[in-house]
Design brief:
By secondary structure, this protein is mainly β. It contains no helices and 3 strands. It has strands at about 10, 20, 25-30. The protein has a 3-stranded antiparallel beta sheet with strand order 1-2-3, with no helix packed on it. The protein is globular. The model has no long low-confidence stretch (mean pLDDT about 90).
């Protein structure tokens, strides 16, 4: 998958029950 995701909340790859903020280029430390 080569398309870039827009910034937003997505399922956390490390904690699927949480959402993690993707800033458009990398995962941040913000979770909810």
């Amino acid at each position: 998958m080569s398309r870039t995701l827009p910034p937003g909340w997505y399922p956390d790859p490390d904690a699927p029950l949480l959402e993690r903020w993707w800033n458009g280029t990398a995962w941040t430390d913000h979770r909810r």
